[in-house]
Design goal:
heterodimer; A: alpha/beta; Rossmann fold; four-stranded antiparallel sheet; B: 2 domains; 22 helices
């Protein structure tokens, strides 16, 4: 599971994220929402251990990302927005490397299944630089899944994917969550969040506006008729003050 | 260091080899590979011949010069933007390794090891090219390798110190290091600079090296120079201290273990963006877009050529820092020559113009405000309702304008510094536009016919090397042919004008201008035939 406790990130005096706390239990899919500059990617990158927090604690299955980075990262996968692959390595070599990095034994069968699931089998020996944007995204997702992470972070996961790829991606996220993984999905596509997520975290100007199950959000931001779409909830939430 | 990181280095090595041999399956690729090996052999052969058959260059002389070169490289590493990212993680490394189960130190170790191994090919080539300046190949090879490592570790260490102190202090630290180095250099150089301004450059360097400040400043660099020039029995005597200096640098880097990851991630993003800009090469890669945003007056439409030329002009204006850097290089090289030849004869002026012509060839490859910068935008360009000839004319406008402006500035200096300098500067200024236009057209024509991303060039890629070696002389031959043609027509004017040099100049200028103008339709044709779906390289 993922736990964020009083996380704060300050860039040269500018507060990007302020005293943020939330957790994602195994099996939950958390949708991270917020306007541009709300601190979503900063939070994801901090949980992934790419950038250090200015304050607070970030834990993956009880391991502090700052204090026990290797233990925490071993259980985590991060798929950034526009993932950059190693241009001169083939798709298969990416998987080979990830298997080695996360000490995945006998990875071949799992890798073949993932390539098949994401329709990458014909591109197995293609160089990363020869792949389209969507295919690179699929490779990054395959790499993320290869070591069966307990926590998965997706930043705009369906950018560039074709409809089939989007469906596969959504199914795979549900499968991973059902298998006990804690998943965080950050996206501006409200329909994706609405379709996929069990919980919501809405950020604005680095502050938490809402955190809880989607149903609670519907109640919290309900309109006069008592029913609210995610789009309405989002606009109501980001127009108001931090809670 | 975890095995996975060794695996990654191995995969990179295999990928590099594969990339080098990728095109060999096609006849064109094979020809380029063979030519590449041939040309490299031809380049290395004279160096080998001189090293083996003629007496080696005096070691004392090399030891006097080499420390300056090493110092210069180290400082330029710090000065330039490349120096800012001395722990240069790629975007892929940030995305895959930073969230991966690795410690910061193991990632640093991976980076240092990968960089060290990456310099092996360069070391090998330079050990042959510089063999005649050394006493043994082994010493030369070991010395160069240690020197390259030192230069990299030096930059890394300074940046790590900076990062560990903090962004604000870092700037101060860097400034302090550079100020101290500059002060020492001034103390070392100052008195001798004045005393030996007109002396031979070599004597000048020896004099500077001999001063106390010079010896102190150059002491660590001197050890590397002595390693390169060591006789076989003395190799260990110099290689061990050089190795220890590198170890010290490494210890500083590893010991600090500053939390560089955030900075490295930011820098890698910046590098990635720069790389995206540099996919076509050019001075644009030297800037990060943080420079001044000059406005450029909108040009008239001119059949569609105006907006395209205007866009390229904006690009040039926003790379003004990089252009300024180029001007400084020109100014420094030209200025040194002018200072040494001040009041001199027109023959030394001829030499200067030769240097300018050579520099022209180099700078033209950097002023890519034309088709060479459009590789990823050719789809858009071709979708515009503008005739190819207008596009071709517009694309060559900006590099010609920038190059000509640079040359005119130099020619103004020549006019003031040389006796009767205007006699050469004036015709040179007149010929600058048609000459530059022709040169830019040839560059662009070859680019459209054989498109290549300069960022894709990697050390040891014989095929790409061969391709460059073939295309470069072809460009030169075409330019030379046009010049000979203009000179031949000019000679007719000279004869018809009763042996009048002005007549020669005017007729040759008209001929060269006509050739340049007639080349625009050829360029337009090459552009019209360019198929982005086939011709755009990865």
């Amino acid at each position: 599971m993922i736990q964020v406790i009083d996380y704060c990130k300050i860039y040269r005096g500018t507060v990007a994220v302020e005293d943020l706390s939330f957790d994602v239990q195994p099996g939950q899919i958390l949708g991270l929402l917020g306007p541009n500059g709300a601190g979503k990617t900063t939070t994801m990158r901090a949980i992934a251990g790419v950038i250090p927090p200015s304050r607070g604690r970030l834990l993956v299955s009880g391991h502090d990302v700052s204090l026990e980075p290797v233990a925490a990262k071993s259980l985590l996968a991060y798929v950034p927005d526009d993932p950059k692959l190693f241009d001169t390595l083939t798709v298969w070599e990416h998987l080979q490397f990830i298997a080695s990095a996360y000490a995945v034994k006998d990875f071949e069968a799992n890798a073949i299944a993932l390539l098949d699931q994401f329709e990458l089998t014909p591109k197995r020996d293609a160089l990363a630089q020869e792949l389209s944007r969507g295919m690179r995204q699929k490779v990054a997702i395959c790499c993320a899944y290869l070591h069966n992470p307990r926590a998965i972070l997706f930043d705009e996961p369906i950018t560039g994917l074709d409809p089939h790829g989007i469906r596969t991606m959504k199914q795979s996220v549900r499968q991973r969550a059902a298998g006990g993984a804690s998943v965080v999905v950050s996206s501006h596509l409200l329909s994706l969040i609405e379709d996929l997520c069990t919980h919501l975290l809405i950020l604005n100007h680095g502050r938490r506006i809402f955190f809880g199950p989607v149903e609670e959000a519907r109640i919290a931001f309900a309109n006069v008729s008592g029913d609210a779409s995610l789009e309405e909830m989002f606009f109501r939430a980001t127009a108001g003050k931090a809670a | 260091m975890p095995t996975a990181l060794f695996t990654l280095i191995g995969l990179h090595f295999r990928a590099k080899l594969r990339n080098s041999l990728r095109g060999v399956r096609t006849p064109r690729g094979l020809i380029f590979l063979v030519l590449g090996i041939l040309v490299l052999s031809l380049r290395l052969s004279p160096a080998l011949y001189h090293a083996l058959r003629t007496p080696r260059v005096d070691s004392q002389m090399v030891r006097a010069v080499a420390p300056f070169a090493i110092l210069g490289f180290c400082l330029s590493n710090l000065f330039t933007s490349f120096g800012d990212s001395a722990v240069p993680f790629t975007g892929a490394e940030v995305d895959f390794l930073f969230p991966g189960p690795f410690t910061r130190r193991s990632l640093l170790g991976y980076k240092i090891l990968k960089t060290s191994l990456g310099t092996a090919f360069t070391t090998l080539i330079f050990s042959i090219l510089l063999l005649r300046y050394s006493n043994s190949w082994i010493a030369c090879c070991v010395g160069i390798w240690l020197t390259v490592q030192f230069m990299q570790l030096f930059a890394m260490a300074v940046i790590m110190v900076g990062q560990s102190i903090g962004e604000r202090a870092y700037t101060t630290t860097r400034r302090s290091v550079l100020t101290v180095a500059a002060l020492l250099a001034i103390i070392a150089v100052g008195p001798t600079l004045i005393a030996h301004l007109h002396s031979n450059p070599l004597e000048f360097l020896i004099e500077v090296h001999a001063t106390i400040a010079g010896r102190v400043l150059l002491a660590p660099f001197d050890i590397f120079a002595r390693t390169i020039t060591a006789a076989a029995p003395d190799l260990l005597k110099w290689a061990i201290p050089a190795f220890l200096i590198n170890l010290l640098m490494l210890a500083i880097v590893i010991g600090l273990d500053a939390n560089y990851m955030e900075t490295a991630a930011t820098l890698s993003q910046r590098r990635y963006e720069r790389r995206q800009r540099a996919r076509s090469g050019g001075v644009a890669r030297l800037t990060d877009g943080s420079g001044p945003r000059f406005r450029v007056i909108q040009l008239p439409r001119w059949g569609g050529a105006g907006p395209i030329a205007w866009r390229q002009l904006i690009g040039a204006a926003r790379c003004s820092r990089a252009l300024l850097l180029l001007l400084i290089v020109i100014g420094f090289a030209g200025g040194t020559f002018i200072l040494q030849s001040r009041g001199g004869s027109l023959s030394s002026l001829g030499k200067l113009l030769g240097v300018v012509a050579w520099m022209n060839m180099v700078f033209i490859s950097m002023l890519k405000f034309d088709f060479r910068d459009e590789l990823d935008r050719l789809d858009l360009l071709r979708s515009l309702p503008i005739r190819p000839i207008a596009v071709a004319a517009a694309e060559v406008f900006t590099p010609v304008l920038v190059l000509t402006t640079m040359q005119l500035m130099l020619l103004v200096a020549v006019t003031f510094c040389f006796k009767d300098g205007w006699k050469v500067a004036l015709p040179a200024a007149a010929f600058a536009v048609p000459f530059n236009l022709l040169q830019v057209e040839i560059e662009n024509w070859f680019f459209l016919k054989f498109p290549l991303r300069s960022a894709g060039l990697i050390a040891g890629d014989m095929q790409l090397f061969g391709r460059q070696m073939v295309i470069f002389p072809c460009k030169f031959l075409l330019l030379l042919t046009a010049l000979i043609l203009a000179a031949a027509v000019g000679t007719i004017g000279y004869i018809l004008g009763n042996k009048s040099w002005p007549a020669f100049g005017v007729v040759a200028w008209i001929a060269l201008s006509l050739v340049a103008l007639a080349t625009i339709p050829l360029l337009a044709r090459a552009y019209a035939r360019f198929d982005p779906s086939i011709d755009t390289p990865a």
